[in-house]
Write a structure and sequence with these properties.
globular; alpha/beta; 6-stranded parallel beta sheet; 28% helix; 7 helices; disordered N terminus
Length: 239
């Protein structure tokens, strides 16, 4: 990591939680310089940035700000959008860690990265709105919609996956998401980057204490899809 610049920055990372911090560590390990910045609903990207080549956003909804109310997805990008539209800040490429919660109101059938989002909770609707705000900006945008995170960094979700009784559940090891993010950041850094939406799972369907691989258990999964929402991984991030 290097100091904040008032001129140009190749890579700026927003978010120092479990995902963001680990991505930053791996970038540093690879000798890829990056800067850390805070994103604010009003101020946007805080600091004296003028131009950002790659903006990676790894934040979680509901985070508290000092002496301020919790921010929500529906307003967190308002400041950034004003910066970009007013041209006080130019951003070439944005990578956003999002959630498959944007599909929560879809009751049945197969859901892919190209499926139109549909949410019924305020949180889900907020994420959709936030994505749409960034989609409207004149930037290249990659949105990674991740299913439930598990693994060493997120140990609480594994028991939930394996005890799914009422409906199928989906997940992805956080380390796989982190590896994917590092790859996309590297691609963006050398201009091998195009706007895209990815739906990320580990390729499995967890249901009634069993784990079914979607590709090899096609007939069973197809039967489940008649009554339940089935998320299909859009890429093989293990290649």
């Amino acid at each position: 990591m290097v100091a904040v610049s008032d001129k140009e920055s190749q890579i700026v990372l927003c978010g120092q939680g479990r995902i963001g911090a680990r991505v930053g560590f791996l970038l540093a390990e690879k000798g890829i310089p990056y800067q850390i910045a805070r994103i604010d609903p009003i101020e946007g990207i805080c600091g004296t940035y003028k131009h950002i080549k790659v903006l990676l956003i790894c934040i979680s909804a509901g985070q508290k700000r000092k002496q301020a109310a919790r921010w929500l997805w529906k307003d967190i990008f308002s400041g950034l959008c004003r910066q970009v539209t007013s041209k006080t800040l130019t951003v070439e490429q944005i990578i956003l860690v999002s959630s498959t919660r944007v599909y929560e109101a879809i009751e049945s059938g197969f859901v892919t990265a190209s499926t139109l989002p549909n949410a019924d909770s305020e949180a889900g609707k907020g994420i959709i709105y936030a994505e749409q705000q960034l989609m409207a900006l004149p930037v290249h945008l990659a949105i990674l919609r991740c299913s439930g995170l598990f693994g060493e960094l997120y140990p609480k979700y594994t028991p939930i996956l394996m005890s799914a009784k009422d409906k199928p559940r989906f997940g992805i090891n956080a380390e796989a998401v982190i590896a994917r993010l590092v790859t996309v950041v590297q691609q963006a850094g050398i201009n091998q980057f195009s706007s895209q939406v990815e739906l990320i799972t580990d390729g499995n369907v967890y249901y009634q204490s069993c784990c079914y691989e979607a590709q090899t258990e096609e007939l069973f999964v197809a039967k489940l899809a008649k009554h339940h929402r089935i998320l299909l991984n859009s890429i093989n991030i293990f290649d």
